[in-house]
Write a structure and sequence with these properties.
globular; 30% helix; 195 residues; alpha/beta; 6 helices; 7-stranded mixed beta sheet; single chain
Length: 195
């Protein structure tokens, strides 16, 4: 198994699982094809019909730009300044802010939808992230992430991947409805309805 397949380089300092690779590798077309991102986005938009989206852990703006192209108002946060610079380059007027997913710099119900792509498995406090995602969104929370039970030569270590039952328990703990789970190409979609 050659190392070039590893698109996730995780540094495990201070219990942090954060991605620390090259911002442009995340915009990579092959990665979008790996997960058939545009079909996933279409399903999200059909289901929630959002006018506005908070892209939490937006990285270099890969998903933000897909939303933006469809005329949806999108704002993003990322904990990595280099990622935000890349995002600003790709979507010049986008509201992107340096912030963790645990503490979003937005008003309550500022958006229709909170969207977390390939970031939920990396966060330190899942309950705090879910409750912040709920706080800033009025219609729903979408989590797009790696499958737990199918392993590929890319993606994070198995032990930090999202287990649907665990996510269900976390939602129950916060009084959120159970997530609808969709197996997507090389990935999983979790829809949590708030409306």
């Amino acid at each position: 198994m050659s190392h070039k397949h590893h698109q996730h380089h995780h540094h495990h300092h201070h219990g942090s699982n954060r991605f620390s690779g090259d911002p442009d590798s995340l915009r990579d077309e092959t990665r979008n094809k790996q997960f058939n991102a545009s079909a996933a986005i279409d399903l999200v938009l059909e289901t929630f019909q959002p006018q506005s989206i908070c892209d939490i852990g937006c990285g270099s703006g890969n998903f933000s730009s897909l939303f933006h192209e469809k005329g949806i108002a999108v704002a993003g946060v990322d904990a990595n300044e280099r990622m935000l610079e890349a995002a600003r380059k790709h979507i010049p007027n986008m509201d992107v802010r340096l912030s963790t997913a645990e503490d979003l710099p937005f008003e309550d119900n500022a958006f229709d939808l909170s969207f977390l792509a390939f970031v939920f498995h990396e966060v330190d406090d899942h309950l705090k992230v879910l409750s912040e995602a709920r706080r800033v969104a009025s219609k729903g929370i979408v989590i797009f992430d790696f499958p737990h039970d199918r392993y590929f030569e890319f993606g994070p270590p198995q032990k930090i991947r999202i287990v649907p039952d665990t996510l269900r328990e976390q939602c129950a703990q916060l009084g959120l409805p159970a997530p609808e789970v969709f197996a997507h190409q090389n990935s999983m979609l979790y829809f949590i309805s708030l409306a």
